Amino acid sequence: MENKEIKALNKRASEYSNDIDAVVAQIKQVVVGQSAVVDRIMISLIANGHILLEGLPGLAKTLMIKTLSDTVDASFNRIQFTPDILPADIVGTKIYNQNNATFSTKKGPIFANFILADEINRAPPKAQSALLEAMQERQVTISGETYQLSKPFLVLATQNPLETQGTYTLPEAQVDRFMFKVNVNYPKEDEEKEIISRMTGSKVPCATKVIKPAKIIEMQKLCHEIYLDDKVRDFIVSIVFATRDPKKYGLDIDNLIEYGASPRASIWLTLGAKAHALLQGRGYVIPDDVKDIAVDVLRHRIILTYEAEAEGVSTDDLVDMILSKVKSP
């Protein structure tokens, strides 16, 4: 790609990054800390992906997605997953009208721009699977009729890592459809003080709408146009292949990995790196864009062996090992 084209992409990316900064500024007026998590949510929105947040209750997971929806002139629905939830409670159903002997469609809460799938692992597999078509194909089928979902469409799912009673482990096929899996941690001491001040004062802060859905769709289109050099593409492929054939890259971790990452890892590493570059106001990807998001993309896509779990080795540890070994361009 010529320098002229790169400069044009840089200019467009810089303009959109100002819009993103305005959204983030509004979110930070409400949410204290959690900058890394907010950053990942924005990247997944721009890359048109979905995000799974794992963390203890009370860490602002729900507040973050609700606040994001408040900054965009778009719809938001919260779905509380429970053991007795049915697919129809998510996507909707057909209702019979006795007056005129006809069926009408009652659309479910999935028909919104921003979806909070709260405590997704509390729902049985049949209900969880109702999300798969919506997340992958951006459409919903109700009694044989297919309905397209609104754009933009972002699913933010949460799960509690400690509670196992009354929960259903997400199948690998479903987890793989999430662009990111992000761990949400406790706030720092000074952040906790700020949380108390904001949430117990006379006026609770709220976000204002600063962006239109059409602008987000434009960003999503630009994300695909961000320049990716062949060397950076090869770097992404090497990272993913190192999870499948570690010895080829000088890594003695074969006994720790049961299954490596799927091709979706390569796709989301690429789109995530492009979205990360756009956030920085750049029209091209650098290796650091890939490294910055690698753990969150690969965390849920590497299946550990029993030996790794027994030794206390996490997927985060393995990704760090791979990044330290795979040569960066």
Q: What does this protein structure show overall?
A:
This protein is an alpha/beta fold and 329 residues long. It has two domains: 3-213, 3-Layer(aba) Sandwich (Rossmann fold); 226-325, Helicase, Ruva Protein, domain 3 (Orthogonal Bundle), CATH 1.10.8. It has helices spanning 3-30, 35-46, 61-71, 87-91, 125-137, 172-175, 189-199, 213-225, 230-244, 263-279, 287-298, 306-310, 315-325; strands at 51-54, 76-80, 92-97, 102-107, 114-118, 139-142, 145-148, 154-159, 180-183, 257-259, 303-304. A hairpin with a 2-residue loop joins β6 (139-142) and β7 (145-148). α8 crosses α10 (263-279) and α10 (263-279) packs across α11 (287-298). The radius of gyration is 21 Å and the shape is globular. The mean pLDDT is 85.
Which sequence of strands runs across the widest sheet? Answer: 2-5-8-1-9
Q: Return the structural class.
A: alpha/beta
How many domain units? Answer: 2
Name of the CATH superfamily of the largest domain: P-loop containing nucleotide triphosphate hydrolases
Give the number of DSSP strands.
11
CATH class of the largest domain: Alpha Beta
Low-confidence stretches at least 5 residues in length (pLDDT < 50)? none
Q: Report the principal-axis shape.
A: globular
**Sheet with most strands:** 5 strands, parallel
C-alpha Rg, in Å?
A: 21 Å
Q: What is the mean pLDDT? A: 85
In the CATH hierarchy, the third-tier topology of the largest domain is known as Rossmann fold
Q: Note the total helix count.
A: 13
